Amino acid sequence: MTALTLSTAGAATLRADALVVGVAKGAGSKSGDLVLAPGAEAVDKAFGGKLAAVLATLGASGAEGELTKVPAPEGLKAPVVVAAGLGAAPEKNGAYDAEALRRAAGAAARSLAGAKKAGFALPIASVEDAEAIAEGALLGAYAFTAYQAGENKLAPKDAKAGGPKLPLAEVAVLGAKPRDKAFKAAAERALAVAEEINRARDLVNTPPNDLYPESFAAVATAAGKEHGVKVQVFDEKALVKGGFGGILGVGQGAARGPRLVKLAYTHPKAEKTLALVGKGITYDSGGISLKPAGHNETMKCDMAGAAAVFATVVSAARLGLRVNVTGWLALAENMPSGSATRPGDVLRMYSGKTVEVLNTDAEGRLVLADALTRASEEEPDAIVDVATLTGAMVLALGNRTFGIMANDDAFRTSIHEIADEVGEASWPMPLPADLRKGMDSPTADIANMGERMGGGLVAGLFLKEFVGEGIAWAHLDIAGPAFHEGAPYGYTPKGGTGSAIRTLVRLAERTADGDLG
User: Alpha helix (H) ranges present in 60-205?
Assistant: First the structure.
């Protein structure tokens, strides 16, 4: 993992492979002119006060996501200066947006793969700014290289190794206050959360021949021992004995059986309990309702919700939050075989309700339903489920925004505000009562499919049926942002992103503070 330090060194004296400074589009009368952000003063001095002019000559505009590298002059210990675009400069005495700082730091860190150390001299007007820079840099430095050879065994012996570049080894944040308790705490939080997000990304990116329900449960068990989280694994025998018909029904076509994993972090002084439920389909073929060609290749990511829940519980433990956080990972492979659930089959769920399966590719709601019922039995103050649930939500909100549905408007609004605060794009969605009728079944209590239009909302209405009465509940459909297939940007890599984790961690922090929404 990338190391993090709050450096007391100045930008001119820091020994590093590169220095990162911020540039922006000028405001006011000089709108459009390139301006240097606070933190770049010493670097500009080394350039004789002409750094902005040099960068502008090279085409830099200060646009968000833009990076410009220049050789450092004498007077700087680092050999390279990286100018990271922050977008529009704030009005006089204004502060830069935390998400702009996070993305700039992430883009710069990503561009410095292979380097040992980089100093980040981006503008810091508050503790929150320092945390955003640290978090963005740590997330941007991520790379998944576990399956890439570090050496080509067939190459001549004198050939250079052709393996991937390792992530930036150390992030040094300049301009913070290393001896200040608030800054120290912010750095520790950034490191803990970023490390758990990156672990979740690793899980999402791991191929399904290596990540399956049993091996995922083993990862959770090991992490629980390391961080003081109690882990309970329900194997196939326990699921059968408990009557978890939804999880068993989805997993019965696979050679490797399903699991339900409970992770429990408790604090002796906690007054509230937050339950999190994650969809963990480690590979989704669609089952008998097989996905069409071109839709299977990324289905290893269908466990991103479970990865998010896992990361959040461990983050809460690492941060010592004064709240009880329980995570439920509903894990299964959805495969077609002679033993697989068929369209038309009826499953008896853990709640006792029966579900007519009209489409085996609508499997996420089945495993979540069992886990939601089980989580409800413990009467938490609130439940949030997280899932790559529907393509309909991607059609509605695109690839970078997750949808929020809830049985309580205030709770939904609170989660939306939290997501915005931490820099995750989300949007509140309704649960129209008229769509419920489409799931009426002549055979069972409910069908797992309803009207095609508004399919993401239909899925939310299905899940709502399995939430205990009187419990505040929200559903996050992260089908769009959980797995990024395009070119990396900001701190977002190609592949697994760790979507919703920052939102859930902040929700746990607010719950600990007595503000559940």
Answer: 98-111, 127-140, 181-205
Strand (E) or helix (H) holding 356: strand 354-356
Please provide residue 464's backbone torsions phi and psi, each rounded to the nearest 5 degrees.
Answer: -55, -30
365 is catalytic: yes
How open is the CA angle 77-79-85, to the nearest 5 degrees? Answer: 105
Q: Give the angle 132-134-136 at the CA atoms, nearest 5°.
A: 65
Assigned token pair, 40 = 């770049």
Rounded Cα–Cα distance for residues 224 and 453 (Å): 41
Annotated catalytic residue, options 45, 184, 291, 348: 291
Place of tokens 């963990």: 280
Which of 434, 442, 253 is closest to 340 using CA atoms?
253
What digits encode the pLDDT tens for the residues 273-309?
999 999 999 999 999 999 998 889 999 999 999 999 9
Residues with Cβ within 8 Å of residue 433, at least 6 apart in sequence: none
Helix, strand, coil share of the chain (percent; to 5): 35, 20, 45
Q: Which of 318, 365, 374, 510 is catalytic?
A: 365
Structure tokens at 207: 């191929």
DSSP sequence for 310-342:
HHHHHHHHHHT-SSEEEEEEEEEEE--STTS--
In angstroms, the Cα distances linking 296 to 139, 262, 287, 335, 361 are 27, 28, 11, 12, 12
Instruction: Please give the radius of gyration of the chain, using alpha carbons only, rounded to the nearest integer.
Output: 24
Q: Establish whether 241 is a catalytic residue.
A: no
Could you give the 3-state DSSP secondary structure of residue 172? strand
Q: Is the pLDDT of residue 30 over 80?
A: no
Among 152-156, 370-374, 508-512, name the one with the lowest average pLDDT.
152-156
Strand (E) or helix (H) holding 503:
helix 501-512
d(CA 177, CA 191): 16
Q: How far apart are CA 487 and CA 58, in angstroms?
A: 23
In this prediction, residue 32 carries a pLDDT of 57
DSSP E strand boundaries for 191-258: 230-234
